[in-house]
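BACKBONE GEOMETRY TOKENS
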Amino acid sequence: MTRPRPPPILRRSVLRLAASLLLPAGAPVRAQDTALASAVKAAYIPKFVPFVAWPGEALYDPAGAVSICVVGADPFGDLLDRVIAGQTIAGHPIVVHRLRTVSRASDCQILFAGGSADQSVADILAAVRGTPVLTMTDDAHDPQSRGIINFIISGNRVRFEIDQDAAAANGLSVSSKLLSLATRVLGRG
């Protein structure tokens, strides 16, 4: 006799909980398992920050918080909020803002460019180019649509590439420790 399958919402909740609590970043995922991949990517985002140097006090907004902006399509749902809940970076709280579009005046120190009909990924990146913002994208093949950190699925694992030239253009410096973990490093920094 086979056991009945739990309802889809329960399966998704269990998957999200396991991903956010038990799986380390870089845990194996199947390319089609987007919920698990999104959970791993959400876990990576705040972990990158200690390995990136911002100019002066550019990492913190006037209120003292570190702002993560998800612009356009949001693959994380509430996963990113749960990952950062109660965390701080250098004693500063972390906040998540979800935006339809972004401009140079947007108060983002870390930005995940999801893109939408309102603003493409390339336009999002162009809007913050030259400002001290750590940009991240998801599986972008077009250089104009690739952030400083670009998530990819490689060998059934969530991995990332780093573009040192894009980091330098935004006034950021990526540590050699993080560069050594990237599957590919673009540019020369």
In short: The two ends are 60 Å apart (CA to CA). The first strand starts at residue 52 and ends at 53.
